[in-house]
Each structure stands twice: as structure tokens, then as C-alpha cells.
Design goal:
Number of helices: 13
Domain G-protein coupled receptors family 1 profile: 65-387
GO cellular component, one term: plasma membrane
Shape: globular
Largest sheet: 2 strands, antiparallel
Number of strands: 2
Distance between the termini: 93 Å
Number of domains: 1
CATH class: Mainly Alpha
Strand content: under 5%
Order of helices and strands: HHHHHHEEHHHHHHH
GO biological process, one term: adenylate cyclase-activating G protein-coupled receptor signaling pathway
InterPro entries: GPCR_Rhodpsn_7TM, GPR1/2/3_C
CATH architecture: Up-down Bundle
Subcellular location: Membrane
CATH topology: Rhopdopsin 7-helix transmembrane proteins
Structural class: mainly alpha
Helix content: over 70%
Radius of gyration: 33 Å
Length: 431
């Protein structure tokens, strides 16, 4: 072969390589397009598998945390003798119901769907209905019990009700409403055959999935599922957070109003009264000393000491100390109420957004669904953090050399204080 022929073949091969490389080069626009197409294909079997595993991990963490809180309440000094502990116990039991159901993820879904996009479906219609009922009742009861906690705090802070009054007239409603409404809603949905396979667990929906929006599919179960979802699921998701925010606003306003009253004129007036009483006592002591010059020095010294002690514990000063203590307790209670409310809102803010999107008929994407599967099973864990954090601070306050990990262990072993006095005192002492 001549050199010229070899050069021409080499040039042709080089051109072919350049053309082939251009074919395999992917521009950023193509990458974005392919990602968008993948998102549009959601849900797929692999995406549901990922969501189910993430959901199981989150709910397992919440389950362990909730059981820990129950054990800590059971071994505390007050146990279930206080309204706060009984309400928190009801919240924990509700979380147990929902966490147990959510942990099973796709297992209770009927096995006939295992060959489709559902991963690890091994159940029946009965197991699916049972899982859906457990999750629904647990989640609704959690939401209602969060409202009950806020209302309890409101009666203590704003209306200054005593423990006996709350136990007799208020607490029965704080338990009966969450339990009754949650069971009632769940039974109605189950009677309408509206607990059916969802993405990663059985919930309110129709069977086969998508039959309501697809006229080509005939719904064999849950023909009223969309109505059931709007009334019994979407409405509580939207209304209950507003009730919690409203009660928190009332509590904050009441605490701030008391604080302004004390800082504006209440404390100043008490101090003036305390100073006036002290001067009057000193003047009276001087008069007594002039009238009783014949008394012994020991007797006069005794009267001076007695008079000094009396002037240091006047009713006005005792009132001042009591007002400061009540103000401090109110702040602690409002902070704790805010912490439990934020734990609830942080868990359910994404499901709230999803409920609004479904209400408006919008498509729920993979990203927001993944965030929802991470956060909403974790309310039990968030409640555990709120419950144990004050105990950790108390442990480090008693021993400044304790590390955070050792303080955490001490908090787990702590049985809490022995609360005494009014509901406000009990609530400020309990963790």
C-alpha cells in the first residue's frame, strides 16, 4: 500500500471517530430532559422500594423513641397521676398505632400487586384494610392530641385553672374527642371499603389505584374514596394546625400581657410598698426603743433582730417573689407548648402541602413524596426530643462536668421531680 493511500484511510478513520464521539456526547440540556422524563414516570417499582425503605427506617426510629417516652412516664414519680402525663401518654399510644402500621410499609398490600410497581406486597385485602385503619386512626389521634395538649396549656396559662378543675371538667374532653373522632372517621372509611393500596402503605384510596381519574378503569373498591379523603383526611390536615397556631397565639399573648403588667407597674408598685413597709417597721422599732429605755440590752437586741427579719418577709415582698416565680413558670410552659407544637408542625407540614395539592387536583412528584416519607413518621422521635431535653439541661446544671452523652444517659434514668402545688407548678416541674 502506498503512503498516500494509507494516509487517506487514516484520515477517514479519524473522521469516523469524531462523528461517533459527537453522537455519544450528552449536553446539559439532554441531561435535564432525561431527568424530567424519569420524574414523569414516577411512580416506578424502584422508586416505591426506596420510599418504602426510607419510611420503614423513619417509623422504626419513631417507634423506639415513643416506647422510651412511655417507659420514662411509667417509672417517673408522678406516673399517670398528672394531666400532662396522661395527655402525653395518649399522644404516645396514638403514635404507636401509626408507627406500627407505617413500619410494615408495603407488606400488607395484596400480593396480587407484587408483580406490578408495588415492591414486597405480600398481604390481602383484609391486611391492607387493617393497616390503613391503624395508620389513619393513629395519625388522626396524634393530631387531635396535639390540639388537646395546646388547650391544656391554654387553660393553665391564660385562664389559670387549678389541677382539680382541669381534671374534673376539661381533661375528659381532651381525651374523648381525639379517641372518638379518630375511631369514628376510621370506621366510616373502612365501612366504605376505602382503605386500599397507596404508594408505600394502605391508606384512603380506590382499588385499583387510579380508577377514579381513569374512566377506562372500573373501581371495585372505594368509589367514594376521594370524598372520604377530603372530609376525613385533608380537612384535619388543614384545620388542626390552625387551631394549634391560634391557641399558641393566645398563650403567648397572655404571657406577654402578664409580663408587661409586672414590668410596667406591677413590680414597681410592689417594690414601693415593700420599701414603705420596711421604713414603717424601722420607725416603729425606733419608737419602741425610746419608750422602753429601761429594758435590758439583750431584750432590745432581740427586738431588733426580730424586727429585721419581719421587715425582710413582708407580704408585699412575698407577693413580689411569687409574681416573679409565676412569670418564670409561664415562660417555661409557653416554651414547652411551643416545642411540642413545632414537633407536630415539622412532621406534618409536608403532608399538609401534599393534601392541598391533591385537593386541587395537582400531581404530587417524587421529591416531595420522599421528604414526606422521611418526616411524617418521625413525630414520636421529635416528641421524645422535646420531652428529654429539659432533663438533659437539668443534669448538666447539677453537674457542669457532665458531657452531653452522659447527661443524656442521666436524663434517661431520671425519674423527674416530685411535683407539688397548682397545675402551673406541676407543669413547670414535669418533663
Amino acid at each position: 500500500m502506498s503512503i498516500r493511500g494509507f494516509a487517506s484511510k487514516a484520515a477517514a478513520a479519524e473522521n469516523e471517530l469524531i462523528t461517533a464521539s459527537k453522537k455519544f456526547t450528552i449536553s446539559p440540556a439532554v441531561v435535564v430532559t432525561r431527568i424530567t422524563q424519569t420524574a414523569r414516570k414516577f411512580p416506578t417499582r424502584s422508586s416505591i422500594k426506596t420510599l418504602a425503605i426510607v419510611q420503614t427506617v423513619s417509623s422504626s426510629i419513631s417507634l423506639i423513641a415513643t416506647i422510651t417516652v412511655i417507659c420514662m412516664i411509667a417509672r417517673s414519680h408522678t406516673k399517670l397521676s398528672s394531666t400532662f402525663h396522661r395527655l402525653l401518654f395518649g399522644l404516645c399510644i396514638s403514635d404507636l398505632f401509626s408507627s406500627l402500621g407505617v413500619t410494615l410499609s408495603t407488606i400488607p398490600i395484596p400480593s396480587k400487586y407484587n408483580q406490578s410497581i408495588w415492591w414486597n406486597a405480600q398481604g390481602t385485602i383484609e391486611t391492607c384494610t387493617t393497616q390503613g385503619l391503624f395508620i389513619f386512626v393513629g395519625l388522626r389521634a396524634e393530631q387531635f392530641y396535639n390540639c388537646s395538649l395546646c388547650l391544656y396549656y391554654l387553660f393553665v396559662i391564660k385562664y389559670n385553672k387549678k389541677e382539680d378543675y382541669i381534671r374534673k371538667y376539661v381533661e375528659p374532653w381532651l381525651h374523648s374527642v381525639p379517641i372518638f373522632l379518630s375511631l369514628l372517621f376510621g370506621i366510616i372509611i373502612a365501612a366504605k371499603d376505602s382503605f386500599n393500596p397507596g404508594l408505600t402503605f394502605c391508606g384512603v384510596g380506590a382499588d385499583p389505584p387510579g380508577c377514579i381519574s381513569n374512566d377506562a378503569l372500573e373501581c371495585t373498591r372505594g368509589r367514594d374514596a376521594q370524598t372520604m379523603y377530603k372530609i376525613f383526611a385533608a380537612v384535619p390536615y388543614v384545620v388542626l394546625p390552625f387551631i394549634i397556631v391560634f391557641t399558641m397565639g393566645l398563650m403567648y399573648h397572655a404571657a406577654r400581657q402578664n409580663e408587661r403588667k409586672m414590668s410596667g407597674y406591677g413590680i414597681h408598685t410592689l417594690r414601693l410598698r415593700a420599701d414603705t413597709n420596711t421604713d414603717d417597721n424601722n420607725n416603729a422599732d425606733g419608737g419602741e426603743s425610746e419608750k422602753n429605755l429601761s429594758e435590758s440590752r439583750i431584750s432590745k437586741r432581740f427586738k431588733e433582730i426580730f424586727s429585721f427579719r419581719f421587715s425582710q418577709s413582708t407580704p408585699s415582698q412575698s407577693r413580689l417573689s411569687r409574681s416573679n416565680k409565676l412569670n418564670k413558670q409561664s415562660k417555661m410552659i409557653v416554651q414547652r407548648a411551643l416545642a411540642y407544637s413545632l414537633a407536630y408542625l415539622f412532621s406534618y407540614i409536608v403532608p399538609l402541602i401534599i393534601s392541598i395539592m391533591k385537593w386541587r387536583g395537582e400531581t404530587v412528584g417524587y421529591g416531595i413524596t420522599l421528604v414526606s416519607r422521611i418526616l411524617f413518621p418521625l413525630q414520636g422521635f421529635f416528641n421524645f426530643l422535646v420531652f428529654i431535653f429539659p432533663r438533659i439541661l437539668n443534669a448538666r446544671k447539677r453537674n457542669a462536668n457532665l458531657s452531653w452523652s452522659r447527661a443524656f444517659v442521666h436524663a434517661l434514668k431520671s425519674r423527674g421531680q416530685r411535683p407539688r402545688g397548682t397545675a402551673r407548678n406541676r407543669l413547670s416541674q414535669q418533663n
